[in-house]
Amino acid sequence: MTAAPTLFLGHRIGWSRVAVILVFAFAVFVPAPDIITPRIQELSELLGFGLLAVAALGRLWCLSYIAGFKNEVLVTEGPYSVVRNPLYVFNFIGAVGFGLAVENPLLAALLALGFFMLYPGVVRLEEERMEQLFGESFARYCEATPRWLPQWSNFHEPETWTINPQRFRAGLVNAMWFLWAFMLWEVFEEFGILLWLRGL
């Protein structure tokens, strides 16, 4: 039960990059089902782009708090004051948003399903590690802050917050991967590469 989350957690960046490549390949080579009308595709793309923007901005928001502090300080401010796993919440929004943005609701549904299959185990393992690192402080944080569904009444933030600019800069590419993938998709679509690849 925990084998897949453990494997993912140990090599998260590598597996995430593989996942991005596979998802992009699926989007390129597997068109939306014929029952998806052009009108629905247009609405799907619009909604998906909105979700991508939310995901990218949300991940940058999280990064501004966590960069340079992960596993060193128990961060409970900003996005971490309303939900314990805001990065994963924004990952979910971005994954579904990408599927919709490339006009393929089937892909969006598959990505949502994959998220629900993998991430609960990953979060459980991460929380075990956080409990070892921060003990009673983390236990109190868990009692006050939900795991998945944000509780905005809990929101609080400091007047000032120090970040590590090098780690923030290093995290920018990963924080924006949803938008990079969508931009690449748009290039493929605009220059006919998409139709050419699907005709191979």
Write up what this structure looks like:
The chain has 200 residues and is an all-alpha fold. It has one domain (3-198). The chain contains nine helices and no strands. The protein has helices at 3-10, 12-29, 38-66, 86-101, 105-134, 136-144, 165-175, 177-190, 193-198. The longest helix is centred in the middle third of the chain and has 30 residues, at 105-134. The protein starts with a helix and ends with a helix. The mean pLDDT is 87.
Provide the succession of SSEs: HHHHHHHHH
Mean pLDDT, nearest integer? Answer: 87
Terminal CA distance reads: 39 Å
* Main structural class: mainly alpha
- Largest sheet geometry: none
Give unreliable regions as ranges. Answer: none
How many individual domains? 1
Strand runs, count:
0
Query: What count of helical segments does DSSP give?
Result: 9
- Helicity, as a percent range: over 70%
Morphology call: elongated
